[in-house]
Specification:
There is one protein chain. With 236 residues, the chain is mainly α. The protein has 10 helices and no strands. α7 packs across α8. The mean pLDDT is 92.
Length: 236
């Protein structure tokens, strides 16, 4: 897939009239840029420098700590107890599942939790975390939902695409398997169904604002991969 492709997502309701379809259409060029990025293509063809992947994993630990908090805030603002329980469960799974993945990858990359804790968040990581937390705390439920959704959906879509290609590196394949599997896809579909119940009941102004948050955090997803590829650090 290239930056100009507008292929429909693999995961989701596949309903052309759904709110999620409208959201995906807006970020399709961004998703194309993500899948064409040398960081992502390098996961399958073996060209990605392990140091860049180690940089990514280290920053992802910082990001996931903020993301778990963001999900907890979205849970608190959810419209029903069922929705609150879902996001609270997902927040817990960030620790139980995603950080467990890092527990396997860190030793394979020669990293330790002490090294991670001593590594500062990069400009891209800090900007993404700050935007995410400001949005979920300062906005309504729809704002928070739209802001956290790209991390769910884009990772599942990237994982599904890369799973078809496989990887020559066992460390990269472990990452691909985690995000490209059916279990994670089922989690994303839960959130997409809620999104499609939420979008139609928003006012025009609320919908425009929520959609803008969705596009912005999708851009941050590209920036996150790009920053890892460049081994971004603070310039001063």
């Amino acid at each position: 897939m290239t930056q100009t492709d507008t292929a429909p997502p693999r995961i989701g309701p596949a309903d052309p009239d759904s709110w999620s379809t409208r959201l995906w259409t807006e970020i399709s060029p961004i998703f194309g840029a993500i899948t064409a990025h040398p960081f992502v293509t390098g996961l399958t063809d073996g060209s990605l420098d392990p140091d860049a992947f180690a940089h990514y994993v280290a920053q992802d630990v910082h990001y996931l700590r903020a993301y778990a908090r963001a999900l907890a805030v979205v849970a608190a603002k959810a419209p029903s107890l069922v929705d609150t329980a879902m996001f609270a469960r997902h927040a817990a799974e960030v620790f139980d599942v995603e950080l467990a993945l890092h527990g396997e990858l860190l030793p394979a990359l020669g990293l330790s939790t002490e090294v991670i804790d001593a590594t500062p968040a990069t400009p891209a990581t800090q900007a993404y975390n700050s935007y995410l937390l400001a949005t979920v705390y300062g906005g309504g439920f729809a704002d928070g939902l739209a802001a956290v959704l790209p991390c769910y959906w884009i990772y599942a879509e990237v994982g599904a695409e890369l799973l078809e290609r496989g990887s020559t590196d066992a460390r990269y394949q472990r990452w691909i398997d985690s995000y490209g599997g059916e279990e994670f896809a089922a989690t994303v579909n839960e959130v997409l169904r809620l999104a499609d119940r939420t979008g139609p009941i928003l006012t025009s102004a609320e919908e425009i604002t929520a959609r803008a948050h969705f596009v912005t955090t999708s851009r941050y997803e590209w920036m996150f991969f790009d920053a890892a590829y460049r081994r971004e650090g603070w310039p001063v």
